Amino acid sequence: MDFSTSITLNGLIQQFLIGLSRTTILFIVSSGLSLVLGVLRIPNVAHGSLYMLGAFLCYTIASFLGASSLGFWLAILLAPLVVALVSLAVERGLFCHLYDREHLMLLLFTFALMLIFGDVVKAVWGSEYRSLSPPEVFQGSLSILGMPFPKYNLFLLCAGPVVAFALWFLTQKTKIGKIARAAAVDRDMVAAVGINVSWVFASVFVIGCYLAGLGGALVAPTQNISQGMDHTIIMEAFLIVIIGGLGNVWGALLGALIFGLTASMGILVWPQFSIVFPYAAVVIVLVFRPKGLLKATW
Prior knowledge:
The protein is mainly α and 298 residues long. The chain has a domain at 26-119 and 176-288. It is built from 11 helices and 2 strands; from the N terminus they run ααααββααααααα. It has a two-stranded antiparallel sheet. α5 (151-173) packs across α6 (175-185) and α10 crosses α11 (276-288). The relative contact order is 0.20.
């Protein structure tokens, strides 16, 4: 096996940090998918499309508000909220009438939504690539152990733990989180005590979709914004949810770490076949832990 690059300690550390920043995006998106899948039992294939929609909305809002730092931060805040409103309209208008249907019906419905969102994005933004620059404060690089590291990626490293703690607090310590966990186990019993399960499901669905939009908004300054960016992320998110443990926030974080770091290290070790490394890691995990690394919480 001929490696095209020699592995150095500096290169290893740099790729590790880059992998961690990519892990943040993977975790945010997959945690939203895990939440919806864990409570509603819906394999939301359109989750990646909402991620793509969040990225395009962030670009549009930031472009409309100008190149100022305030415009960028407002775009980061507003884009996921618009995605959440869209998901609420879809859930209240269509999804809430299908909860009693077979899972195959729900899967086909979310697949149809994915196609519709893809056409909407193409009609509104076209097929051209778009790009968004981070605010001035996050432009350029910092020196970490003598190596340059993008400032915006450092911001992503800080954002990941914040989102993880917020999700843990929401699901474990708040009333809506406790009700959602109870509804996931026995929705009939929850309804029997007078709780509107339909609105519980709507809340969970909107929160999960908000996280998809947030992931898209955060990733916008780091890559080209284009059609098709939803396809890769949804496949990766489903794999992360599977290996992490259904509905487990820390499992999603652990799965995202494995996926993100193996992908990053694969580029350093064997660039021509780097795409294989994270999927090989998933296979190895499932061989030894078929039910996931951590216990499902629902």
